[in-house]
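How a chain folds remains the central question behind the approach discussed here. In the encoding step, the backbone of a single protein was reduced to a row of integers, each denoting a local shape. We regard such an encoding as a compact summary of how the chain folds. The sequence in question and its structure tokens are set out directly beneath this paragraph:

___
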Amino acid sequence: MDVSDVATRTVNIPMVGIQDDIDIPDLAAKILQVAIVTVFVYMLATIARFRKTEKILSK
């Protein structure tokens, strides 16, 4: 049992991270976050593949 669990029981507030009212802006923000991470991972993979190809060609 950590401090946040004790605090939520004594003050009668929901646990951190639990949210009942998820609206369109919340969903849009999460979708945008996933899109940004996906593009970032794709860019890293492309750069790594390019560097590997460049290394092979330079030998």
